[in-house]
Amino acid sequence: MSVWLRQHGFALGSALVHVRRAPGSFLFNILVVAIALALPFAGLTVLDNVRPMSEQLSVDPELSVFLKQDLPREHAQGMAGSLRAVAKDARIVFVPREEALGELQNKNGLAGVIDTLGDNPLPDSYVLKLNAFQSAAQSAHVDEVAEQLRAIPGVESVQVDSAWVKRLAALLGVLRMGLLLLAATLGTVVIAVVFNTIRLQVLTQREEILVLRLIGATSTYIQRPFYYTGALLGLCAGAVALGGVALSLRPLNTAIAEFARLYASEFQLAPLEPLAMALLLALSAGLGLVGAALSVRRQLARLS
Question: Which one of 17, 119, 230, 246 is separated from 169 by 20 to 30 angstroms, measured CA to CA?
Answer without folding.
Answer: 246
